[in-house]
Predict the 3D structure of the following.
Amino acid sequence: MAQRTVLFVLFDGVQSLDITGPLEVFAGAEQHTPGTYRIRTASLDGAAVRTSSGLTVVPDEALARAEAPHTLLVPGGQGTRHPDALLTDWLREHGPRAERLVSVCTGAIRLAEAGLLDGRRVTTHWAYCDRLARDHPDVEVDPDPIYVRDGRVSTSAGVTSGIDLALALVEEDLGRDAALA
């Protein structure tokens, strides 16, 4: 089985739990079945980011140097409330190269800004569903599920549902026993 790179996109104002919850799931799966996941974090310039709670997170690399991942994961947080043209451009260019696009909570806003959710059924945090639907009319926003999988794109409704989605992806990749472990 080939090792899958999971790349977490970091930006100022990111919700730390949107990163660490799914990251711990993939890290646990890697410990259960060594050689299955290579977990990476990256910010636009490779510099540390400050989360919405004030925690500083130091990424592994700059997005420009990141290899094309199997799974590209975009977390949410207060930082998604304001568009970031450079990050949007990077996602628009590199998002289609990933085998899987995943968002946690309002990370769906970042993917929608890049046009990567057009024609897809998605979800996000309930408090932002109306905004996402209004700002991106080509996206079908479903406020009810905890996560939605539409082809290669998966979106989750919030912090804990991001963990549930990560577990579902591990189960798809490695089987139920690995996800349960």
The radius of gyration is 15 Å. The helical segments are 16-32, 85-94, 107-113, 129-135, 159-174, 176-180. The longest helix spans residues 16-32.
